[in-house]
Amino acid sequence: MSQSVAYKEKNQAAASSVLAAIGLTSLKIVVGLLTGSLGILAEAAHSALDLVAALMTWFAVRISGKPPDHDHLYGHGKVENLSALIETLLLVATCVGVLYSAVTRLIHGKTDIEVTVWSFVVMVLSMIVDFSRSRMLSKAAKKHNSQALEADALHFSTDIWSSAVVIVGLAGVKLSETHPALAPLKNADAVSAICVAGIVFFVCGRLGMRTVQALLDAAPKGLNDEIRKAAEGVSGIMDCHRIRARYSGAQLFVDAHVTVDGSQTLDQAHILTEEVELAIERIAPGADVTVHAEPATGLSVAALHETGSPNNLS
User: Fold this and answer.
1) Domain span at 164
2) Higher-confidence residue: 59 or 256?
3) Structural domain total, the chain
4) Phi/psi at 50 (5° precision)
5) Which of 23, 121, 199, 230 is 20 to 30 A (C-alpha) from 264?
6) How confident is the model at residue 309 (pLDDT cuts 50, 70, 90)?
7) 296 is a domain residue
8) Helix 38-64 to helix 147-176 angle, to the nearest 10 degrees?
């Protein structure tokens, strides 16, 4: 797939997420004001935060698609990693707010949820929309290896749980009004919120670590060994060393040094490096690979012939 097609698909996914966030935020504000439900207005504020996150992802995808320039020789892919980190922090901040509200509600035994038919309608609709866009963003993130879209998908998948918590709370409050024995159910939403926040904290931790590793140029696990094996499998290559692999957004960059017979011509050595690059690209499709050839000493070449290595030089 060409970079232009990948950029177009990622941009469409991010843009559709923005439109969905605008629609849900507007709907929740209207319903919250008409019904006077503090629970729905709180969800409207949550959706407003989602809109900010969606806009941030959209801008990150657009910027990361720009070609390299004089100031950014490796392109702008790191913008996606930075966007994913910021969005993960926003999720953590949201969870802290949810935990604080839930614990406060349990301690004081108060609930701010007003039960109306429209409250259920808007929350169910919210879950349907969030499920649809979370699934779409997740597919695009996996297809294009985009951490920004992955973080956006995670954000909206947590919204599904958040909406479910509000519905549980609405049902609990309604049931608590039917019989004194069911009075404790008015706290059902707070207990559910604490459970959901715990799950989100765990998922955010995993995504956050991966994002930080990408920003710190950590080598993809196990890839260096695969690159070395592929390079040394090319006939004429004595060894492969100084392998450096890192991601910039979805783009993988690989640099490697190979040892070749120093008595061959520059053209022959260049052909060998191109073969190594192709071998590496077979295990890392779409990677930007640079291979540097180094001449072996005479002793090394003689030793190679004596060992009868399958990669020896004739």
Assistant:
1) 3-215
2) 256
3) 2
4) -60, -40
5) 230
6) very low
7) yes
8) 170
